[in-house]
Amino acid sequence: MADDMSYCFRHPNGEEPSARANAVLPSFQNQPGFPRDTRQQLAFAEEFIRNNICKSVSISDIANATGVNIRALQRLFRKHHGATPIHVLLNGRIAAAHEIICSGKATSVRELAARLHFSNPGRFSKLYRKTYSVVPSEQIRAHQCMANSRDLPA
Description:
Blueprint: H1 36-51, H2 59-66, H3 70-81, H4 85-102, H5 109-115, H6 121-132, H7 136-151
Helix pairs in contact: 1-2
C-alpha cells in the first residue's frame, strides 16, 4: 500500500518528486523582484509539500524544513499563491486523490481520505467536489465499473 503512494504527486513537468530538498524549481528562476532567498524558501517549501503530500504534515514541519518561522512562511505563500501553506497542501492532496481515483487504485472514500491524512471523509468529499464538480464516491464507482467491464470475457 505504501508503494502505491509514491506516485501520488508529481512536479508540474511530470517528474517524480526529488529527494533533494534544496532544488530550486525552474518556474521561479529569473523572476524580477523576487529575491533569491525568498525564491529558494518558497521552492524549498513547495518541494517539501510535494514530497510529503501523502504523509502527516503540519505547518511547523513545513516551516522547519524551509528554515523560516511559521508567520514568514504564511506571508510568503499568501504573497505568491494567495493561500496558506496548508491550503496548498490540501489542494495537492485533492489532486493526488484525483490521480489515485483515475488510476483505479481507490477502493472507498473513507480509505482514500485516510491514506491522504484527511481526518474527516466528509470534509475530504466536500473539498473534492468543490474542485472537480463530482463527489469522489461516484468517480470511484465509475472507475471500478470500467475496470470490471474490461475484465469480462468478450
